[in-house]
Specification:
153 residues, mainly alpha, 2 strands, elongated
Length: 153
Protein backbone atom coordinates (compact mmCIF):
# COMPACT_ATOMS: atom_id res chain seq x y z
CA UNK A 1 0.00 0.00 0.00
CA UNK A 2 1.29 3.46 -0.92
CA UNK A 3 1.23 6.09 1.80
CA UNK A 4 0.28 9.67 1.02
CA UNK A 5 3.10 12.20 1.14
CA UNK A 6 0.86 15.16 0.29
CA UNK A 7 1.33 16.81 3.68
CA UNK A 8 5.12 16.55 3.74
CA UNK A 9 5.32 17.55 0.07
CA UNK A 10 3.11 20.57 0.74
CA UNK A 11 5.17 21.62 3.77
CA UNK A 12 8.26 21.28 1.56
CA UNK A 13 6.66 23.60 -1.03
CA UNK A 14 5.68 26.14 1.63
CA UNK A 15 9.15 26.17 3.21
CA UNK A 16 10.69 26.72 -0.23
CA UNK A 17 8.33 29.65 -0.79
CA UNK A 18 8.99 31.10 2.66
CA UNK A 19 12.79 30.98 2.49
CA UNK A 20 13.05 32.05 -1.17
CA UNK A 21 10.83 35.12 -1.17
CA UNK A 22 13.27 37.11 -3.30
CA UNK A 23 13.79 34.36 -5.88
CA UNK A 24 11.77 33.15 -8.82
CA UNK A 25 10.10 29.81 -8.03
CA UNK A 26 8.37 28.08 -10.91
CA UNK A 27 6.38 24.90 -10.37
CA UNK A 28 9.14 23.16 -12.34
CA UNK A 29 11.90 24.35 -9.98
CA UNK A 30 9.79 23.47 -6.94
CA UNK A 31 9.03 20.04 -8.44
CA UNK A 32 12.76 19.40 -8.84
CA UNK A 33 13.27 20.03 -5.13
CA UNK A 34 10.29 17.89 -4.08
CA UNK A 35 11.31 15.24 -6.65
CA UNK A 36 7.90 15.13 -8.29
CA UNK A 37 6.26 16.59 -11.38
CA UNK A 38 5.22 20.23 -11.88
CA UNK A 39 1.55 19.26 -12.34
CA UNK A 40 1.45 17.75 -8.84
CA UNK A 41 3.08 20.91 -7.42
CA UNK A 42 0.49 23.08 -9.18
CA UNK A 43 -2.31 20.94 -7.68
CA UNK A 44 -0.87 21.42 -4.18
CA UNK A 45 -0.41 25.15 -4.74
CA UNK A 46 -3.99 25.49 -5.96
CA UNK A 47 -5.21 23.84 -2.75
CA UNK A 48 -3.05 26.22 -0.71
CA UNK A 49 -4.50 29.20 -2.60
CA UNK A 50 -8.07 27.97 -2.03
CA UNK A 51 -7.30 27.61 1.68
CA UNK A 52 -5.95 31.17 1.82
CA UNK A 53 -2.41 30.08 2.73
CA UNK A 54 -0.64 31.14 -0.47
CA UNK A 55 -0.93 33.72 -3.22
CA UNK A 56 0.38 33.65 -6.77
CA UNK A 57 -0.23 35.31 -10.08
CA UNK A 58 -0.61 33.21 -13.22
CA UNK A 59 2.44 33.51 -15.44
CA UNK A 60 4.67 34.83 -12.66
CA UNK A 61 6.94 32.47 -10.78
CA UNK A 62 6.70 34.40 -7.50
CA UNK A 63 4.39 32.53 -5.12
CA UNK A 64 4.18 33.87 -1.58
CA UNK A 65 2.63 32.98 1.74
CA UNK A 66 -0.66 34.76 2.44
CA UNK A 67 0.28 35.34 6.05
CA UNK A 68 3.38 35.08 8.22
CA UNK A 69 4.80 31.59 8.72
CA UNK A 70 4.21 31.81 12.47
CA UNK A 71 0.47 32.16 11.78
CA UNK A 72 0.19 29.04 9.60
CA UNK A 73 -0.16 25.77 11.49
CA UNK A 74 0.58 22.25 10.38
CA UNK A 75 -3.15 21.61 10.85
CA UNK A 76 -3.95 24.46 8.43
CA UNK A 77 -1.71 22.85 5.83
CA UNK A 78 -3.12 19.37 6.49
CA UNK A 79 -6.70 20.59 6.11
CA UNK A 80 -5.77 22.45 2.92
CA UNK A 81 -4.45 19.34 1.18
CA UNK A 82 -6.34 16.50 2.84
CA UNK A 83 -9.62 18.21 3.76
CA UNK A 84 -11.48 16.15 6.33
CA UNK A 85 -9.65 12.93 5.41
CA UNK A 86 -8.69 11.14 8.64
CA UNK A 87 -5.14 10.08 9.48
CA UNK A 88 -6.23 6.49 10.13
CA UNK A 89 -8.65 4.60 7.93
CA UNK A 90 -11.00 1.78 8.74
CA UNK A 91 -11.25 -1.23 6.46
CA UNK A 92 -14.85 -0.85 5.36
CA UNK A 93 -14.67 -3.66 2.81
CA UNK A 94 -15.79 -6.38 5.20
CA UNK A 95 -17.04 -8.62 2.42
CA UNK A 96 -13.66 -8.65 0.62
CA UNK A 97 -11.07 -8.39 3.39
CA UNK A 98 -12.59 -10.25 6.30
CA UNK A 99 -14.61 -13.40 6.73
CA UNK A 100 -18.27 -12.36 7.18
CA UNK A 101 -18.80 -15.49 9.28
CA UNK A 102 -16.21 -14.34 11.81
CA UNK A 103 -17.54 -12.32 14.76
CA UNK A 104 -14.29 -10.41 15.05
CA UNK A 105 -14.22 -9.71 11.32
CA UNK A 106 -17.68 -8.20 11.40
CA UNK A 107 -17.22 -6.05 14.51
CA UNK A 108 -13.55 -5.07 14.73
CA UNK A 109 -13.74 -2.05 12.41
CA UNK A 110 -16.62 -0.52 14.35
CA UNK A 111 -14.81 -1.29 17.59
CA UNK A 112 -11.80 0.70 16.36
CA UNK A 113 -13.78 3.78 15.26
CA UNK A 114 -13.91 5.46 18.67
CA UNK A 115 -10.19 4.96 19.24
CA UNK A 116 -9.37 6.29 15.77
CA UNK A 117 -11.52 9.36 16.47
CA UNK A 118 -9.61 9.96 19.72
CA UNK A 119 -6.25 9.63 17.93
CA UNK A 120 -7.43 12.04 15.21
CA UNK A 121 -8.50 14.62 17.79
CA UNK A 122 -5.19 14.37 19.67
CA UNK A 123 -3.14 14.59 16.47
CA UNK A 124 -5.09 17.62 15.25
CA UNK A 125 -4.65 19.38 18.60
CA UNK A 126 -0.87 18.83 18.39
CA UNK A 127 -0.71 19.84 14.71
CA UNK A 128 -2.47 23.07 15.65
CA UNK A 129 0.46 23.98 17.95
CA UNK A 130 3.15 23.49 15.29
CA UNK A 131 3.64 26.43 12.96
CA UNK A 132 5.33 26.65 9.61
CA UNK A 133 7.85 28.93 11.33
CA UNK A 134 8.66 26.13 13.80
CA UNK A 135 9.40 23.85 10.86
CA UNK A 136 11.52 26.52 9.16
CA UNK A 137 13.46 27.10 12.39
CA UNK A 138 14.11 23.36 12.73
CA UNK A 139 15.23 23.26 9.10
CA UNK A 140 17.74 26.06 9.75
CA UNK A 141 18.98 24.32 12.92
CA UNK A 142 19.53 21.09 11.00
CA UNK A 143 21.33 22.80 8.11
CA UNK A 144 23.48 24.73 10.58
CA UNK A 145 24.44 21.51 12.39
CA UNK A 146 25.17 19.85 9.04
CA UNK A 147 27.38 22.77 8.00
CA UNK A 148 29.17 22.69 11.37
CA UNK A 149 29.88 18.97 10.88
CA UNK A 150 31.16 19.63 7.35
CA UNK A 151 33.57 22.23 8.75
CA UNK A 152 34.90 19.76 11.33
CA UNK A 153 35.55 17.00 8.81
Amino acid sequence: MKYSTKLSDTVHVMVLIAINQEKSLSSTSIAESVHTNPGFVRQLMLKLKKAGLMTSVAGHARPSLSKPADQITLLDIYKAVEGEKPLLHLDTHIDTHTNPDCGVGINIQLSLQGFYNEIQKTAEEKMNTITLQDIINTYYQRTSMHNDLQNII
